[in-house]
Design a protein that fits this description.
The protein is of the alpha+beta class. 41% of the residues lie in helices and 11% in strands. GO terms for molecular function: penicillin binding; peptidoglycan glycosyltransferase activity; serine-type D-Ala-D-Ala carboxypeptidase activity.
């Protein structure tokens, strides 16, 4: 039963009846064909005069995010749960049901059914407990477009449903103009894609999924009749949020109407009426905190994509416009997220630390040569849910622990930064065979106090003197991670050149103190090569991916393709790459980077490494990489790469740099990253690294170069404070 009429509604029908009284009396005696002609002449409207939104609807639609297979749904974004589908993808019984329920003479009238309007007006003026509608499907379509058009103002949208005679007459004129210009099937298609079916579902595609968990092409007769019946009063009749009894009563009404229009037989109607109400309600996820069930780890990637989206001018001139485009533009986004790599990364991150551990292992995987981000994992739930007292960001958080930003500056990555020193040295003309008799401790020109100083100067030491001290070249200096060798090498090249190299490969200084020192005093940043600046797994993986791609840097990108609601590709997301290193320099650095992981350089100069188990996990497949331990083992890092993938993981306590993770976790981090690499390259052809030139390798028999002792009269320069020290300063 329909809801009782409001006084305003009754007044409106009386007013409209008065205006059209003469027309009502006239049409009552006119034959059908003559009536149609009168309707066409009375329209007084033209297609050219229609609002643009009625010609080309700008109705809001849901945007979909898929994994890189184009099939695995990550989440959707919407203000209005709606997706357009062509009429060919809507079950014929659904088309017949909506016509029978809302506009039986749809295929006969000219957009405004004067006979039906007259009948409704007379009935409504007389009263009787129920109100009859005189609006055709075309008129309803006009109303729906105008009240939801995102290009119109709020006042204009509200006016589309004003209970005034003028608005109703305008609606009739617009409907008549549309009917003269568009085919009936086109109008029906547009109507089915904009009508509201209750429970947040706009359009038949959303309604079919919301109530029955299926596409509209698969709707049965009973299901179609139920959905068609909801349109008259969506909230009241919704079997999910409204009255199921009313919904079934409306279903029966629609089935009887379908019999009356000869769409189905009485027997088919009876059979459909006898079917029980069987729902399979599904709620479409909305946003990054509503990713697919069991995959809340995808939220970090989703959030990274959303941040990327908000920087793209193709989606609007302002951040607000881009946000609105994502939520209402009906885009289909095929992301770069690889579900298999992501699953392994998440499994490995939670294997090292549980969700309830205050320490974290954020992991990122990047594809060399494209910059496509393949995975972003951490032992946290991407969720706004409350945490236990004292646990600010675990097990639930939406902070960008993997990519950085907002309040996340990143983490020290230790000796992984020695790569930038090696690259700067190679670029300056030095060779891989550049030798130095590395001492256990190396006095420098930088002022320092405390245990790490030598007579007032910063004096870095080797972590394992028995294994690290002695004559080293880049191969074994990198393989054994010899601090004093690389601090010396950085001084020969120039600290500013090392810092610039890191920035060139995408290392971003998010901590204010790091950014200031890099800008104003990079030449005196002696400890930079030891990885004291904060970074993120994503930045680090992409920097090493640049070396894997033989010197081609690609901006990290989270998408493969984006298409708009019309199926047209949006020109965004293509790899944005540029050469930042000479090919031979990148190949030389890769050759030395094979030493840490238990493989051999092209020149046979590897003689030990800090992550030799990686070779076994990769079954001897060509791989390179580097470990990193920061001051007091506050973090432990490993980054590895093949020509096809680069992966980085950093074990840290995101909330407390003073909480050292300890050296014991290093082997677990190495194992975790290596297994992510193994998943990424599984099934791919094995690719070998290209050896560098003999010229860049140099002569391994070059005489020993002794350390250069800084002159006493040289003015010492204060070393920048580490992340741990900065955190302690903030704590007071």
């Amino acid at each position: 039963m329909a809801a009782p009429r409001s006084p305003l509604s009754r007044l409106f029908t009386v007013l409209l009846a008065g205006v059209l009284a003469g027309l009502v009396l006239a049409v009552a005696a006119l034959p059908g064909n003559l009536l149609l002609g009168l309707g066409a002449r009375a329209a007084l409207g033209s297609y050219a005069a229609l609002p643009a939104s009625l010609k080309t609807p700008a109705t809001p639609q849901r945007s979909y995010l898929y994994a890189n297979d184009g099939k695995t749904l990550i989440t959707t974004f919407y203000d209005v749960n709606r997706t357009d589908v062509p009429l060919s993808e809507i079950a014929p019984v659904m088309r017949q049901a909506i016509v029978a329920a809302e506009d039986r003479r749809f295929y006969d009238h000219g957009g405004a059914d004067l006979r039906g309007l007259a009948r409704a007006l007379v009935a409504n003026v007389k009263g009787g407990g129920t109100e009859q509608g005189g609006s055709t499907l075309t008129m309803q379509y006009v109303r729906n477009v105008l009240k939801t058009d995102p290009t119109r103002t709020a006042e204009e949208r509200a006016a589309a449903t004003d209970p005034t005679v003028g608005r109703k007459i305008q609606e009739i004129r617009y409907a008549s103009a549309l009917d003269k210009s568009l085919g009936k099937d086109e109008i029906l298609d547009r109507y089915l894609n904009i009508a509201y079916f209750g429970s947040g579902a706009y359009g038949i595609a959303a309604a079919s999924q919301r109530y029955f968990g299926k596409p509209p092409a698969q709707l049965t007769l009973a299901e179609s009749a139920l959905l068609a019946g909801l349109v008259q009063s969506p909230d009241a009749y919704s079997p999910i949020s409204g009255d199921k009894g009313e919904a079934l009563a409306r279903r029966s009404y629609v089935l009887d109407s379908m019999v009356a229009t000869n769409a189905i037989t009485a027997a088919q109607a009876a059979q459909a009426k006898a079917e029980p109400l069987t729902l399979h309600p599904t709620a479409q996820p909305n946003g990054c905190t509503a990713v697919s069930q069991g995959h809340d780890d995808w939220g970090y990637f989703c959030d990274y994509l959303r941040q990327w989206w908000l920087t793209q001018p193709a989606f609007g001139a302002t951040v607000a416009e881009r946000e609105q485009a994502l939520r209402s533009g009906g885009y289909t986004v095929v992301t770069s997220l690889d579900p298999k790599i992501q699953a392994t990364a998440q499994q490995q991150a939670t294997k090292v630390y549980s969700y309830d551990n205050k320490r974290a292992l954020p992991i990122a995987a990047v594809q060399p040569g494209t910059g496509q981000v393949l995975a972003m994992a951490v032992n946290r739930h991407y969720s706004l849910a409350d945490n236990p007292n004292g646990q600010a960001n675990y097990p639930n958080t939406v902070n960008p622990l993997i990519s950085g930003g907002a309040s996340v500056d990143g983490y020290q990555a230790g000796s992984t930064f020695k790569l930038f020193t090696m690259l700067a040295a190679l670029e300056s003309g030095r060779t891989l065979s550049t030798g130095f008799d590395a001492p256990a401790k190396l006095p420098t020109r930088y002022a320092a106090e405390g245990p790490g100083s030598c007579e007032g100067r910063w004096c870095p030491a080797n972590a394992n003197p028995d294994w690290m001290d002695g004559y080293r070249m880049m191969w074994d200096g990198f393989g054994r991670s010899v601090n004093t060798y690389f601090v010396w090498l950085a001084e020969q090249v120039g600290q500013d050149k090392v810092v610039e190299m890191a920035q060139r490969l995408g290392i971003t200084f998010r901590a204010d103190t790091d950014a200031a020192f890099a800008k104003d005093n990079a030449a005196n940043w002696g400890s930079f090569t030891l990885g004291v600046a904060a970074t993120t797994p994503l930045d680090l993986a992409n920097a090493y991916a640049t070396v894997a791609a033989e010197g081609t840097y690609c901006t990290p990108v989270p998408v493969v393709s984006v298409t708009d609601s019309d199926g047209k590709k949006v020109p965004v997301g293509q790899p944005s790459c540029k050469r930042v290193l000479d090919v031979d320099v990148a190949r030389a650095a890769t050759d030395a980077a094979r030493c840490p992981v238990g493989q051999q350089s092209a020149f046979g100069q590897c003689n030990g490494g800090t992550a030799t188990g990686v070779n076994d996990i990769l079954d001897g497949r060509p791989v390179a990489g580097k470990t990193g331990s920061s001051e007091q083992n506050s973090t432990e890092t490993f980054v590895g790469f093949t020509p096809q993938v680069a992966v980085a993981g950093i074990a840290a306590n995101p909330d407390d740099p003073a909480d050292s993770v300890g050296s014991a976790v290093q082997s677990k981090v190495i194992d975790a990253v290596a297994r992510v690499i193994a998943t990424a390259v599984k099934g791919q052809p094995e690719k070998a690294f290209v050896a560098p030139s003999r010229e860049l390798a140099g002569d391994a028999r070059r005489p020993v170069q002794r350390p250069v002792v800084p002159e006493r009269q040289q003015q010492p320069t204060q070393e920048p404070r580490s992340a741990l020290q900065r955190w302690l300063d903030r704590r007071g």
